[in-house]
Amino acid sequence: MSLEEYKNDMQTCCRCSACKFIPFENVKGFDNVNVCPSISRYDFHAYSGGGRLGIGMALLEKRIDYTDKLLEVIYNCQMCGACDTSCKYAMDMEVIEPINEIRFACVESGHTLPILDKMIASLRAQGPMVLGTKVKRGEWAKGLKVKDYTKQKAEIIYHAGCRTCYDQSMWHTAQSVIKLMQKADSDVAIAYEESCCGGRAYQMGYREVALNQAQRNMDMMKKAGVKTLVTGCAECYYAFKVLYDKFEGKGDIEVLHTSEYFNRLIKKGSLKPQKKVNLSVTYHDPCHLGRQGEPYIHWNGKRIPGQIILFDPPKEFRRGTYGVYQPPRDILESIPGLKLIEMDRTKEYAWCCGAGGGVSETNPEFARWTANERIKEAKRTGAEAIVTGCPGCETSFNAAIKEDVNGFKVFDVVELLAKTIF
Amino acid sequence: MALTKEQYAAFEDIVGSAYISSDPVIMYSYSWRSGLYAGIDNFTPLFEAALLPQTTEEVQAIVKLCNKYGLQFKATSTNWGPYNDAAGPGVLKIDLRRMNRIIEINEKNMYAVVEPYVIGAQLQAECMKRGFNCNQNGAGTNCSALPIAAHGGYGHLSQSGSYGERNMLALEWVTPDGEIIKLGSLGSADEWFCGDGPGPSLRGIIRGNVTPLGGLGVFTKAATKIYPWSGPAVFPIEGVSPHYAPSQIPPHFLICFYSFPSLDMLDEAQRKIGESEIAYELMGFNAAMAASNIATSNEEMVKLFKEFSGMVQGPCCMIIIVGDSTRDFEYKTKVLKQIAEETQGKSLDKIVEDPKVAGGCLWRWMRSTGSIREVFRATGCFGGEVGGTDTYRLMADYIIETGKCKDDLIKKQLVYNDGSSPFTQCIEHGHTGHGELLIRYRPDATTWNGLMEFMAKANNIAINGHFGVPGHVFSDAQHDIYGPHVSNYHLWLRRIKASFDPNNASEGSHYITVKK
Amino acid sequence: MIEETKLEKIVGKANIDRKRTTLHEYSQDMSFIHPIRPEAVIKPQNTAEIQQLINLARQTGTPLIPISSGSPHFRGDTVPSIGGAIIVDLSGMKKIFRVSRKHRVAMFEPGVTFEELIKAVAKEGLRLNMPLLPRISKSVVGSILEREPVIMPKYHWDIADPLACTEVILGTGDVIRTGAAAGSGTIEEQWAAGGAQKEAAGPSSASWYRVIQGSQGTMGIVTWISARCEIIPKLEEPFLVGSSKLDKIMDVVHWLIRRRLINECFVLNNVNLASIMAKNVTRNKHQLQTGLPPFILFFNIAAYDYFPEERLNGQTKDMIEIMQQVGLDVVKTLGGITAAELLKTVQQPSTEPFWKLREKGGCQDIFFLTLNDRLEELVNTMYNLVSESGYPTSDIGIYLQPIVQGVNCHFEFNLPYNPENQEEYHQVRTLSEKITKALINKGVFFSRPYGEQTRYIMNRDAATVAALKKVKAIVDPDNIMNPGKLCF
Predict the structure, then answer these.
(1) Percent of chain C with pLDDT over 70
(2) How many CB pairs under 8 A join B and C?
(3) pLDDT value at residue C3
(4) Min CA distance, C423 vs chain B (Å)?
């Protein structure tokens, strides 16, 4: 696809500003109505979903050029997809796709941000997508007795992801995943030399790099005979489940988030949450597990000429309806002693953690601000901790609560599950 | 005509460097054309700069500088309609997004005070927590809750909750020449409860049944009446987008959708319903709008519209009843049933029988979230006939007449064929009414020309048929057509403009300008 | 000064009155305003005559004072502020053009009184949202243009109600119609199309009716209005609540209005209720007064066409629940006064003599708007000031009228006095000024300033005054319309 191919979508923006807010039916009060961190922070209309669609049209019509300001507006966006979901409550049009396409256009015409180039250069060399790391990719699995699917066949694999591999503070979650899977008699394998899923590169605008990563990973997995891929990173989940399917490379591999996988095991009786975990928590839906995590819908058609927007064949839009919302909640609710309190902005209209779209690298202050907003919302529920299912979210929240004197905590769902099992 | 360095610096001194921009990327995003009355140009004339003030004092300072430099300004809240745009160079955008506080909700005296960027949903939700409700703009709950921000401000709750022209109490106004006038009790007593006096009411010069559309300064705070609400503090919505519905319809709530064999019968029904004061909402949605509201995609909408069209016997209306007590609810329900029988109303069961569907419709029409679906999803653009306000029947007849012109457009395939059934509504228990003819279209040159011809015919119908001044009448050209037939109102409007905007600083291309 | 012949050409000799006694009558009223004699009293009969009059007045710089009610006048707005003025007495313009049951509207001229209009609309099953006991000579148009509070807050959606449209001749001599009446088409053409001149706002982005209201004739002369009417109920059940606890009473009022349970609703103190209901004021009033609680709430529950008994029954039960929650008792009779007779009384204008004048012949009203939760405080302020002055506090009348569906409250103090008694006259005059200033400082809003305190009230809001002067310059550039009133 190219930006031109999204022209009809961009032209359909009527300027209603729904993209700035949570779906209005769910507004419960004055607070917590905003859903787009970008415009909430920067206020000019350009920073909204609708604003960027207008910019996309201006680019197509060559009214503006690839300036620093353009890059600043386009890249001060976590690519969380909230604008897309809110818009599609009422409209039949794509929002996050053309916004991503603008990034591709930037990169493909040689305009990007140096720090992103640096990360991608590292990725191209199969290096880390986490800048400044001092650990090696497979180090987290040291001491674990788990096979390597790059060396032997494996039907079920666990993909840790860059944000886990290269961040020591995330290792315990990955280690818990393996232990839990093995406790449930799963013959899980990993890749000690994992390859980045390429998902974040895609969101940053590096389409070709992402495609290359997809090819690489799928070749590896097909060779190993993988049937099920489990990951605890929402970005990786989105990459494998949605993007690879979009690239038509996923094949028949079943992609599951750790919450989906473990929820199955609990329901099957293979894992029995027994130990009490006395804690009140609130759950944060990662963007790429929730609203963006629903399956990709293949469609190859065109608009039917005429006044009304209809397609041949009929086009089903991804509206965030079928994201992974319930399994993590089911796990939490199965843990004795744990109390789950919901925030105002949940599920398909959850507020972003702040980390996505390259923002934690290109504008750490904005990422921190976004995370702070979420932590404020979490604290207002009265919960003692925020729980989520993505290392990116966890890192972002941990940075935000660093100086928290009241002991507010951040957990992964798997961590809490491990507490009740072991 | 770009701002000079000195001018830019002066404006920057007011709002701070983070809240002013003249960068083309920012400017073009503001100039992306609205879907309402979308023309063939994708972009409207660029603003010279966009500013985001946070206080009334900052707004005043900006306005004064515009007067000093010979610049114009256009202030906007949620920035949806075409009246938020500039007509040419030399205009500053005052984006009021940062003025977003609910100042006060006074329960004992039943009013709320808001800044321009409080949206309807926010105010309604806060009101509901306290046992109140507030009118929502028909365009949607995504619009400003300020009772003078919208084009007209009539909405779904107008049957029991009136609309902006009637609901507004005191107001804080930065005039086009930079004075601050506080209307009514606000100016005299620093209280928000009354917008009129001392003596004559200045509410009379700042809006009519339509607002001045950004051409008469900046309205920075306003008080608005709030209305009783006997429903839950938080409506129990479940589901995942786009399928929201209440887990169950709360007690003492009822939604009905009737079609009638003729407009005479519908007129009679709305009159009786109004006189018996039983309806919380009464909206004359047609089958197309109902289908658009319920459907979550255009595909689904087309199917539903076909189904509904086969199920309705004529013009329709939706009624919501809310009981303040069991007795009250039972009475209202009984009366509605009786009236429906007397006027041969036929229920569209597909909407009201399934509690999930009915509940979803009830909340969407209560919260006013379905308007984007109803008017924009089909084609991305919406225009058409926005009638005025007067007796219900007069407004309905106007739409019926202009509907015949819409039939021509449909025949030529210039607009989406959703029929030409009227959309009507009642205000204040049927004392007045309003009507609109939805025209959904994709903007291209042929369609646009067709629409212009249609509007000319619609204007002729309004004038020759004595249907009053429609709400879509704005800008000099339209006022000059209507004015001579309507007490020369345009000349008086120009005099207000000339007197209060001596330097022509408030961009009035959609309101009116002072012509030589 | 306008030449006599020119005046005669317009209105006819019989409609020009320069008699000394007549001029004396119009030179003063029951307010404390300084008397100034007009030059003549003219009685035009139609729009064309008035328009010609205004054009002539513009040429000669002659002030015009429009009046529509008969005497006595109370507020000072009908007394010239400068010499050389002509009174334009519209009280003879008594046409009732239309009463429409379907559209719940009536259209009539300024000379129509409440008694006349009540009869006319009743024939169609309609009634007016009336002020409390207007005097028999009061013009309906006059009352509505003055924004007098009305006694059915449920039907008072906006402070301008029940006003709909107007025809007004501005000080420029232009005839305009406001609201839906503006056009297109003649009124008859609009009726034929199905219009009923119901929408007050507009046309387009101005609502001139709001500028005309409250202007005390300083903007133009209204030649007719259309006014919203309500339906006569099938059943009515009035009630009384007596208490010394004003806050509890207002709590009840809030809920009754909020729940839309009631039609007529107002609060009087014992003084005012006794003044209204006493059959013989000299003999009965004090006895009646002492037999009543300090404050009396009156309200009426009504039911219309559909299942009226059920409706009345249900709303009555709902009302009783509210009473029980607040802790007040509702009765049908209080101190010898029945709710039924009070209802009957207030659905008509005052009988003669006008109720406010019955006891002493004169009465000074001090009225303003305020918030519902401030009333007790303001009553106390008032009583303190009055008792300092020596005026008998037992003579103070209080009238509280919730308006705009309960958003705020018209608060009225009535100070009866004998205008022939110089001491009483000066006492009340001084007190009036003192009270007004004290209450302004308490944050009440004198939305309808009259008489001697007008300048003081208007000058509190310089920005509004400046804006009003701009409006005045638009519609009356020669300042011939009641000059000297308000801030003009």
Answers:
(1) 100
(2) 324
(3) 86
(4) 31
Distances in Å between the alpha carbon of C85 and those of B200, C40, C106?
22, 7, 32
What per-residue confidence (pLDDT) applies to B516?
63
H-run or E-run covering B171: strand B168-174
Instruction: Tell me which chain B residues have a C-beta less than 8 angstroms from the C-beta of C466.
Output: 179
Contact in structure between C269 and C296 (CB atoms under 8 Å): yes
Nearest 5°: the CA angle C137, C139, C144 is 140
Alpha-carbon torsion, ordered C258, C259, C262, C268, to 10 deg: -40
Cβ atoms of residues B278 and B215 within 8 Å:
no
Spatial CB neighbours of C120, under 8 Å, sequence gap ≥ 6: C96, C99, C106, C108
Element housing C87 (H / E): strand C86-89
B469–C215 CB contact, under 8 Å: no
Q: Does C299 score more than 70 pLDDT?
A: yes
What is the average pLDDT across C257-265? 98
Residue B187: list chain C partners with CB under 8 A: 460-461, 463-464
Cβ contacts (< 8 Å) between C463 and chain B: which residues? 179-182, 187
Answer yes or no: do C471 and B175 touch at CB < 8 A: no
Residue B280 C-alpha, separation from nearest chain C C-alpha, in angstroms: 12
CB–CB of A307 and B140 under 8 A?
A: no
What is the 3-class SS of chain A, one letter each residue? CCHHHHHHHHHCCCCCCHHHECCHHHCCCCCCCECCHHHHHHCCHHHCHHHHHHHHHHHHCCCCCCCHHHHHHHHCCCCCCHHHHHHHCCCCCCCHHHHHHHHHHHHHCCCCCHHHHHHHHHHHCCCCCCCCCCCCHHHHHCCCCCEECCCCCCCEEEECCHHHHCCHHHHHHHHHHHHHHHHCCCCEEECCCCCCCCHHHHHHCCHHHHHHHHHHHHHHHHHHCCCEEEECCHHHHHHHHHHHHHCCCCCCCEEEEHHHHHHHHHHHCCCCCCCCCCEEEEECCCCCCCCCCCCCCCCCCEECCCCCCCEECCCCCCCCCCCCCHHHHHHHHHCCCEEECCCCCCHHHCCCCCCHHHHHHHCHHHHHHHHHHHHHHHHHCCCCEEEECCHHHHHHHHHHCCCCCCCCEEEEHHHHHHHHHC
The fold of A116-268 is Rossmann fold (3.40.50)
Return d(Cα C381, Cα C392) in angstroms, integer: 15
Q: How many CA atoms lie within 13 A of C337 on its CB side?
A: 33
Domains of chain C from N-terminus onward: 4-89 (3.30.43.10), 96-231 (3.30.465.10), 235-346 (3.40.462.10), 360-448 (3.30.70)
Share of chain C above pLDDT 90, in %: 97
Interface chains of chain B (3 or more CB pairs under 8 Å): A, C
CA distance B509 to chain A (A): 20
A71 contacts in B (CB within 8 Å)?
none
**To the nearest whole angstrom, how far is the Cα of C118 from the nearest Cα of chain B?**
19
Please enumerate in sequence order all residues whose Cβ is within 8 A of that of C20, keeping only pairs 6 or more positions apart, or say none: none
A70 touches chain B (CB under 8 A): yes
B242 and A88 within 8 Å at the Cβ level: the answer is yes
**Which of A34, A45, A53, A303 is best to mutate for the B interface (most B CBs within 10 A)?**
A45
**Which residues of chain B have a CB within 8 Å of the CB of C147?**
196-197
User: Where in chain A are the domains?
Assistant: 116-268
Cross-chain residue pair C406–B203, CB shorter than 8 Å: no
Contacts of B109 in chain C (CB under 8 A): 371-373, 406-408
Tens digits of residue pLDDT in A231-276: 999 999 999 999 999 999 888 999 999 999 999 999 999 999 999 9
